[in-house]
Each structure stands twice: as structure tokens, then as C-alpha cells.
Amino acid sequence: MPRCPESSDSCNHFATDAAGQDNTDTTGLTTLVRREPSVSDEQVQRRRRTGGEDLIGLLLTSEVEGRRLAPSEVVTNAFNVLLGGNMTVANVVTALLSHPEAPSRYGQWAELPVAGLVEEAMRLSSPPNHFLRYACHDAQVGAAHIQAGQAVAVWFGSANRDEAVFDQPDTFRPGRSPNRHIALGAPHYCLAHRLARTTLRVRFEELFAAVREIEPAGPAAHLHSNLVAGITELPMRIWRR
Predict the structure, then answer these.
(1) Three-state DSSP class for 240?
(2) With a threshold of 0.90, does the pTM exceed it?
(3) Mean pLDDT, residues 140-158
(4) CA distance to 59, 60, 61, 199, per residue, from 53 (Å)
(5) Is the torsion defined by CA of 75, 16, 34, 36 positive or negative?
(6) Do 123 and 160 form a contact (C-beta atoms < 8 A)?
(7) Which residues, in sequence order, are CB contacts of 111 under 8 Å at separation 6+?
């Protein structure tokens, strides 16, 4: 898993804030994204001088079609890894803990293989709401005819509950197989997928090891965003092991 640079605390806190930004007018995240390069540009320039085997160092030495990535491309890719991994981790965990069956089935979940639980939790929570792309050529998708140049939105929560793909799609079934969810994208896969999966596995392992029982202590407050599906506040009572 790539390592963040040693001075990445501010970048990590930024990613956390952006992933949980309660932006009612949906502009907060855009503002934060625009503000980030002033920090990352400095890190990129320093890493260019000193070298290194962390994430930024790896991106600086990467080539695409025979050319090195420009500093702006390094910034964008590093930010996508941090934001993608962080957004997924925070919102998948809270989404699962807010599940109606969580209080009664938490103990059973703690005994299951974590890898399968992580995949099903990502499918059911689907942290990114949608991605928008433009058609390069005319295409037929189901009954819809799409013309070249038209905007096409993929709604991840809907796709991950497609009854033609998933049996009982609204039911949380850890270990579901096959589980062809697209919570991390398809076919353009999320750069942070290894970071997200590894961090989620560790988070759930630590949670199950430390907490034996949970109980809701109030209603969940949901994020107001058309980009990210998440929870900003989840009051709970916990009993430690």
C-alpha cells in the first residue's frame, strides 16, 4: 500500500473534512478541492528534489505513453487516492453501524470473515452517489439510445441494487457471492481501491475486537450532498469487551 509523505497530516485531515463536508448547497467540496493544490504543490516540488518511495514519489516517476506526469497530474492523482480511500472508509463504517439489523446481528458479523463483510458493506452503502461522463459515440444501453456528446450519469446506489444482478439487493448479506458491485467504479477503477479495502478491513477488525455490543442512541444525521452518500453524526451506545 502506498505511504503518504511524512508531512501529510494536513492533507489527511483535509481529505477527512472533504469526505464529511456537510455542504447543503453542494459547493463546499468544490471549494475544498480548489484549495488543496497550494499544499500538495509544495509537497510535489519537495519530493521532486529529494526523491522517495511514497505515493508522491511513485507518481513523479510514473510514465504514461512515454512521458512523465506533470505536477498538476501528480497533485490530482494523489488527492484522488486520499479522498477516495478516506471517503469510502468513513461512510462505509457508519452506514453499516446505522443498518437496522446492526444491534441484533453485530455479534454475528464479528465472527464472519472480514473481507466478505467489507465488500457487501461497500455495495450496500455505495459512498459515491454518481459520476458523470460524456458519450464518445452513439450507444444503446438497454432501452435507452445515447447519442455521442450526451451526458450520462451512473448512479452507484441504484446499480448496486440492480435486481437483475443481485439477489435480494436491499438485504445485507456478508459473504455474498458473486458480488459484482461497482462501489469503487467500473470499468475505470478507483485509484484508492487497495487503500480503501485495507483500511476498512483493519477498521472492522479493530472495532470487532474492542466492542462487543452496540445500540443506537439517536437518529443518524445524513450528509447533504449530491456527490457523497454518508452520515455526519451517528449517536451510539457501545459496550467494550
Answers:
(1) strand
(2) no
(3) 93
(4) 10, 10, 10, 20
(5) negative
(6) yes
(7) none
Nine cell digits for residue 151: 451526458
Tell me what the pLDDT averaged over the chain comes to: 81
Q: pLDDT of 96-130, one tens digit each? A: 999 999 999 999 999 999 999 999 999 999 988 88
Grid cell 450526451 in the structure block, residue: 150
pLDDT at 10 over 60: no
Phi, psi angle pair for 92, to nearest 5°: -70, -45
Residue 61's φ and ψ, nearest 5 degrees, are -100, 0
Burial letters 20-29, b for 16+ CB under 10 A, else e: bbebeeeebb
Q: How far apart are CA 236 and CA 221, in angstroms?
A: 12
Query: How many residues can be counted in the chain?
Result: 241
